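TEACHING EXERCISE
Course module: macromolecular assemblies
Task: Read the component lines below, then compare them to the predicted structure of the full complex.
Student: A.B.
Group: 4
Components provided:
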Amino acid sequence: MIKIEKREMPIERIRNIGIMAHIDAGKTTTTERILFYSGRIHKMGEVHEGTATMDYMQQEQERGITIVSAATTCEWKNNRINIIDTPGHVDFTVEVERSLRVLDGAVAIFCSVGGVQPQTETVWRQARKYNVPCICFINKIDRLGGDFYKSVGEIKNKLGAKPVILQLPIGQESDFKGVVDIVLEKAYIWHEDDLGAETFIIDIPEEFSDSVAKAREELFEMVLDYDEELMNDYLEGALIDSGRLKNVIRIAVLKNAVTPVFCGSALKNKGIQPLLDAIIDYLPDPSQVGAAIGINPKKEEKIFRQVSDDEPFSALVFKIQSDPFVGRLAYTRVYSGSLSAGTVAFNPRKRKRERIGKILTMHANSRTETNSLHAGDIVALVGLKETQTGDTLCREDKQIVYEGMQFPEPVMHISIEPRTKGDADKLESVLDRLTDEDPTFRVRNEEESGQKIISGMGELHLDIIVDRMKRDYKVDVRVGKPQVSYRETITKRVDRTESVCDRQFGGGSQYGHVVLDLIPLEKGHGLVFENKLSENQLLPEFVSAVESAVRDASSAGIIAGYPIFDMKVVLSGGSMRREDSCEAAYKITAAQAFFEALKKAEPTLLEPIMQIEILVPDEYLGEIMNDFNSRRGKIENMHIRGDLKEIVGKVPLSNMFGYSTELRNRSQGRGTFSMQFDSFERVPETVFEKL
Ligand code: GDP
Ligand code: MG
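Instructor-supplied answer key:
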């Protein structure tokens, strides 16, 4: 037996956190500073210079955005912080979702000018869904038009959170110098010349006495309920020391009852060290978020696993990445137990044993090998062959399955064709790798043209994939025009479409007979198959043949070959003959009945509708709104954001190709927008005819 090494870091000293934000709020810059101050990197990189450590993929550096959630580990005052850098761009919400699934706490970053932007609301809702305790960092206090209190107000009103102010900014815009700490009743100042490396602790400046008193009063009001003894002491006027106060804040944060607010300027190197302290002080360690809940795959019953080394090993793989040096990396969150490198884990979904070759602790651009993994860790495993994103690993004699992850369906596709013979040879295996890494990326072969169709979550998503093929794998492809991925559905119920197959075939005869009903379903129901026949009427293998034929047939509808959704197919009648019924005959009959019924069911097209936010200076508002209306856009809301106006609305994806260029042209480069998939809606009559 291989000895498992003792854990290096006690579980109370581990934090698994995510950093979430609207694009451009400063997530990458903040992460970069965290790595710098914690000694993980020795030179600060800047996003705008394309040298940020976390944005290590070339495409990210060029585009200045964060695409891949790279897990990185750093140490702060003898604690280990595992950070998952979640991307802000909407095409990659799936990355956000999957990181939130494995984190214990989050830091939400806001821009002091932009405040709570609609996309932050989306990410916030995702965090709520997984009950992740959060702290807020209001960044860019140095920016013109920044407003700390307004941002706090928006956190309360727009996100419905209960913000509790634990810091106040000293000075604003170019005068921003440091922060006042409400808990310790001290102030911190940083200087530019040492890149803020040293924190100078001073007394709270005079002019803050009122605002600090007010903030402390609010703080006590919000947290005292969580510690009776403290409440009594406070009411009796006793001095409350900062240790006890921190403790009760922590309790309230873990209950998701309050959200502490901090502030600073990542770019100007102010406010980062206290933010690191806050991560340790207020966010939970892995054992404090409650037991991990999974399913026993053999009995379909719930299993609770305490996050502890004393429990049997279990872990969730949350990301697969192919790495040029070590091959296939499986980013894994360990929930319970421990394991050493070189041993075997079990994947219950695949029913496969997987040998864990190496265990790596990942930093943004380097890694260290360790001998063992323990409850609460986030590590990358090398050597797993079949395990995919969302799979559980566990002990074979103590099986458990954690809930996997749901990924949205792609909304856009393009055709690709290899440029040379060499490219063609490599293409298949490269596409396999890319689909392995990214569950929202799909590939299919189009039989008529012999082309490959790749689909994903948006133009940028597909752009980056094609780019990666070229750069990382040296495969060059010609790409077609991006196309919207429509869906088909039916609008009318059609009962009892009958089909019989009774034919002579190779000297014998084949018989099949089915009756199908098609029923339209509400949005979001996919394709449902229901069998109403007993085994005496139709043997189960014939029923399965019918179901598989129906599912096959519905993958390409009769309007334009798009998959059919939101429809129920009922097998309501049929018969068999003992002597010559066979599966092949039921497949043929089912497909016939299905297509015949489909023609009568008044099929129609569904198109992807996007949620969009556009930010423009006032003087371009009219122009941009006119243009937006002409794209079948529906405006839902308008807000004022500093000196900008924000339009929030919905618009069909099909009318948004090349919008970023268009917006830039119409606003002298000053407008920005972000967009994400909202829902599939029926295509209006007039547009349908054109298609
Ligand atoms: P992300 O998209 O959330 O990762 O944001 P980035 O970290 O890439 O930052 C977006 C832009 O804002 C970059 O140009 C940064 O240099 C800039 N930025 C980040 N933090 C600050 C800050 O505190 N103050 C100011 N003025 N700019 C900042
Ligand atoms: Mg970034």
